[in-house]
Amino acid sequence: MNPIVREALRRQWPLFGALGLFLVFALAHTLTFLPTATRYESTLKRAGEMGLAFDPDQMPQTLPPRVFALLADNAIPAAVATERAASGALTANLLDDLNKRVAANGMEVLVTEPGPVTQLPHSVQVRAHLKIRCRYPQFTALLGDLGRSGSLIAFDRFTLLPNESGTEILEVWVSRSILKQDERTP
Predict the structure, then answer these.
(1) Is the CB of residue 94 less than 8 Å from the CB of residue 176?
(2) What is the CATH number of the domain that holds 146?
(3) Which residues are CB-neighbours of 144 under 8 A, at least 6 positions away?
(4) Could you give phi then psi for residue 158, rounded to 5 degrees?
(5) 60 within some domain
(6) Per-residue confidence (pLDDT) for residue 45, from 0 to 100
(7) What CA–CA distance (Å, rounded) separates 97 from 131?
(8) What DSSP designation does 12 have?
(9) What gap in Å lies between CA 141 and CA 162, rounded to an integer?
(10) Residue 47's pLDDT is what?
């Protein structure tokens, strides 16, 4: 071998060593790590198809069980909701439910009057207006009872005025939301 070429190769041995080491690592990567990474990616894909996610950013949004139960208990099929809203059955159910709760808390209903029914894309809102004779502790007990009832009833507004008999006259505007279920929703 030519002494000049041999001397040039001797000076370049770190380059050849690095190139050889690169080839060893590339071969190890191709034979060992690449198949493992491919299996990992396919496992993540299958887990995602089953509804599992390991990345917090890709977690499916689920409702807490109590919220899901509340929504399920206050939902009826869309066709039934539309029919009952048009017939006044939903308003009658609201007034009946309120009258029972008012009576259970020792209050006296003076006037009930149905309000407008609003058809929304995903729900029906039923309204009513009531005048009730009660005492303040009875009113707070009614609020607690409605809060625990599991129905989507809201007091839109109310006034509590003193009466000459020592009781108060509660005038309340109430609304209830009934959710419409899709036909494809179980």
Answers:
(1) yes
(2) 3.30.70.60
(3) none
(4) -155, 155
(5) no
(6) 86
(7) 15
(8) T
(9) 18
(10) 81
